[in-house]
């Protein structure tokens, strides 16, 4: 990678034969109604793999690597990576025990820990690779920048890679009216009331550079099409959006000044828009991935 940072040419997802990544054929899996699993499958499919940092050789090496999945949620990424790279050791950290209780494979350890109340239960410079996905919008300002990044860099070794994967929360691109309304009148105002900085992906590259601990900072942007006219990735992204819209009902009903029934009607309208999205509409959204090397 170049010393200087840059946004790579925008990657556009192209439908290919469905890859068998790791050990499972994703078409056979039940992903519906599980938002995190849906996001995991969508991103794995869209990026054509589980990670972007150049750590493949290290993860496969005999001595392996020590890897942290920060904010691991249900642990889908951790478990799949541990299966694919048995010589490496994977730690999943989450403030609640949302991950599986008994763990297989053996090279995984899940730990309950909240970075906002305690330092992470690791020494300085323990990890070769730190990964964090879809976590920025779970922190109120300024905790992500003032606490989380510092703590993740503390546990990362010099010469180790850090990687973040995050969604852009925009009004969307060629979205239908209902989804646009949900976003502009619901999601964004709610994020604001929570002091969640949904614009952080746009300046995150600068934010990483300003730590003065990282080099080769790189941002990659990926366009994800929505709806079944875009093949399997479009089905996954539609499912992901619907899971998100449904899961936000309790938060958004009052801010949107809707009754339960009116929110359900809006969900129905969004469902129609995203699932049936015609090719001409060409609706899509973006994910960003940030990679950097600790000096
Ligand atoms: C949207 S989920 C993403 C889960 C997982 N990274 C994935 O991609 O499937 C956000 C996760 O951040 C976790 N989280 C929230 N506050 C946290 C904190 N203080 N420290 C670590 N993780 C936190 C949540 O518990 C949740 O599991």
TrEMBL record:
InterPro entries: Methyltransf_25, SAM-dependent_MTases_sf. It comes from Rhizophagus irregularis (strain DAOM 197198w) (Glomus intraradices). This is Methyltransferase domain-containing protein. Residues 67-160 form the Methyltransferase domain. It holds the Pfam family Methyltransf_25. PANTHER family: METHYLTRANSFERASE. CDD domains: AdoMet_MTases. Gene3D superfamilies: Vaccinia Virus protein VP39 (3.40.50.150). Signal peptide: none annotated.
